[in-house]
Automatic annotation (TrEMBL):
Family: Belongs to the UDP-glucose/GDP-mannose dehydrogenase family.
Name of this protein: UDP-glucose 6-dehydrogenase
Active site, per annotation: 258 (nucleophile)
Organism placement in taxonomy: Bacteria, Bacillati, Bacillota, Bacilli, Bacillales
NCBIfam families tied to this protein: NDP-sugDHase
GO molecular-function term, one example from the UniProt record: UDP-glucose 6-dehydrogenase activity
Source organism: Effusibacillus lacus
Length: 440
């Protein structure tokens, strides 16, 4: 198939590379010339394991090209897949400026029949509105498809190629057949729906995941106070097949470009339709409080943060990505700095050049430099690199061996044996000290 992917971000770049790898002829368009220049030079703007190799392999084969030029991008294309950003607006509704700019460009540059698949996460009703706008001059010129994406950053290629399911919202048999052919390599259920249901599935899925995280964090907070152990509680409830073990890891709450934005969008949708969506408001509130709670723990242990040196390990909103959109780490750093603390931060892949003056922290070359002379360390991203830290060296370098672990990366009893004051989420230090059975 001759495909144009619009948007060379986390979703667009992965989609374009995988389609090219499957043998399609792909042109990827972005309106950011710097981004396209970097990609062409082999220096991808997003960190995603396996992606650089896949992009360069297909660029060499000429099955994948990059451009900023609409005429080049849409010439002879059978399918245009739109993967531009839909960031949250002030009122919680997604900002659809980029999407509508693309739609207007499509209308101006495409004359023949074409399929337009919306991969961006868009509010319910968007595909219908896009179809009305694009077809107002000639009915049937643009065939609109809702094709929401469920990949996770950090494992995006694998998720794209082995999804749990595909959801396709379409209106014509031709669109249905084309999507069946395009996603033929996938071994997963494909659900065909109307546009609105497909759009709703994406939001509902993300809001459910967000809800599960806020749920387990609430249980974890209760465990800390009630002398229970979240490791055992999560295991015990996760083995119930009606619940399942995924997304039952307590921590500092969800971040990134999807869960917060999409949960906010559902709240906004509820307001539009006059439906009570206080459940999702509460999910967001709990998520915010989880970031405050970790700073309070630090403050309590250090008897105030003024003048204290705090090492922050990890800035990305999760491991294996360089994305810091809505990263809990940045909100936590902000609070520490506001309370008078001095932050020295390290992340294996995040570019800290612009972030450090903005958030008022000192960047470190590695984790050991970050913890040197620190009064406490706070672990905020679950990078593999941190699993491999020489913990005795970390302890020796610190002013005092206080490690607040927002990701529950280490075994509490081992940390205690190593001489740390180790504060994970969902289990108190007293519980670890008094426990006769392993805690993790
Ligand atoms: N990131 C994820 O993990 C993920 C997962 C599933 C769904 N989504 C959804 O996919 C969409 C894209 O997300 P992302 O993380 O890839 O965003 P992104 O910000 O990484 O990429 C968007 C790209 O679109 C480009 N763009 C903006 N306006 C343009 C225009 N008029 N013409 C051409 N290019 C334009 C930007 O320059 C940018 O490179 C969003 O709606 C998001 O909610 C994201």
């Amino acid at each position: 198939m001759r495909i144009c992917v619009v948007g060379a971000g986390y979703v667009g770049l992965v989609s374009a590379a995988v389609f090219a790898d499957w043998g399609h002829d792909v042109v990827c368009l972005d309106n950011d010339p710097l981004k396209i220049g970097r990609i062409r030079a082999g220096n991808l703007p997003v960190y995603e394991p396996g992606l650089p190799e896949m992009v360069s392999r297909n660029m060499e084969k000429k099955s994948l090209r990059f451009t900023t030029d609409w005429e080049v991008a849409v010439k002879d294309r059978e399918l245009v897949m739109v993967a531009v950003g839909t960031p949250p607006g002030e009122d919680g509704h997604p900002n659809l400026t980029a999407l509508w700019n693309v739609v207007k460009s499509l209308k101006a540059s495409i004359r023949d029949h074409v399929l337009v698949a919306i991969k961006s996460t868009v509010p319910v009703g968007t595909c219908a509105a896009v179809s009305r706008f694009l077809n107002e001059d000639r009915e049937g010129r643009f065939d609109i498809i809702s094709a929401p994406e469920f990949l996770r950053q950090g494992s995006a290629i694998n998720d794209f190629m082995s999804p749990d399911r595909m959801v396709i919202g379409c209106r014509t048999e031709a669109a249905r057949q084309s999507m069946k052919e395009l996603f033929e390599p996938l071994d997963c259920p494909v659900i065909f729906t109307d546009w609105q249901s497909s759009e709703m599935i994406k939001y509902a899925a993300n809001a459910y995941l967000a809800m599960k995280i806020s749920f387990i964090n609430t249980i974890a907070n209760l465990c800390e106070e009630a002398d229970a152990n979240i490791y055992q509680v999560a295991l015990g409830i996760g083995l119930d097949r009606r619940i399942g073990p995924a997304f039952l890891k307590p921590g500092i709450g969800f971040g990134g470009s999807c869960l917060p934005k999409d949960t906010k969008a559902l709240v906004a949708l509820g307001e539009t339709y006059g439906v009570n969506v206080s459940l999702f408001q509460e999910v967001l509130r709990i998520n915010h409080e989880q970031r405050v709670r970790i700073v309070k723990k630090l403050e309590a242990r250090l008897e105030g943060l003024a003048g204290k040196r705090i090492a922050v390990l990890g800035l990305a909103f999760k491991a294996n990505t360089n994305d810091v959109r809505e990263a809990p780490a940045l909100a936590i750093i902000h609070q520490i700095v506001q309370a008078g603390g001095q932050v020295v931060a390290y992340d294996p892949v995040v570019d800290m050049k612009d972030l450090s003056p903005l958030y008022g922290f000192t960047p470190a070359e590695d984790a050991y430099q970050a913890v040197t002379h620190a009064d406490a360390a706070v672990l905020l991203t679950e990078w593999d690199e941190f699993y491999g830290l020489e913990l005795e060296r970390v302890r020796e370098l610190m002013n005092q061996p206080l490690l607040v672990d927002g990701r529950n990366l280490f075994a509490p009893q081992v940390m205690r044996q190593l001489g740390f004051h180790y504060i994970p989420v969902g289990i108190s230090e007293e519980h670890v000290a008094n426990s006769l059975v392993p805690t993790a």
